[in-house]
Amino acid sequence: MSHAYDRTALSRGTMTSGIDLAQVAAARARLVELGEDLPAPVVAAEPVVSVRVCVLAGLLAGLLVWLVR
Q1: Which pTM was predicted?
Q2: Backbone angle region of 2, left / alpha / beta, with phi > 0 → left and psi within -120 to 50 → alpha
């Protein structure tokens, strides 16, 4: 692209800082289309791992690191 084209595009508001606003609008429209095709998120009934198990695993890992040091 030439500088004259960039200057004209900036003055018309069709390009800002090297970004073509028409391409941005097309990308947003495509994202909306993709969003409509996505299924609704699934909410888990209960957590996969309990907090107690995570705490115990962290304590075990900390103990092992402390023993190896």
Answers
A1: 0.35
A2: beta
How many helices (DSSP H) and strands (DSSP E) are in the chain? 3, 2
Cβ count near 35 (within 10 Å): 8
Q: Is residue 9 packed enough to be buried (19+ CB in 10 Å), middle (13-18) or exposed (0-12)?
A: middle
Integer Cα distance of 12 and 20 in angstroms: 12
CB 14 within 8 A of CB 20: yes
Which residue type occupies 62? G
Separation of alpha carbons 63 and 69, rounded Å: 10
**Tens-digit pLDDT profile for residues 4-59:** 656 666 666 655 566 677 888 888 888 888 877 777 778 878 777 889 999 999 99
Cα–Cα distance for residue pair 17/39, rounded to 1 Å: 36
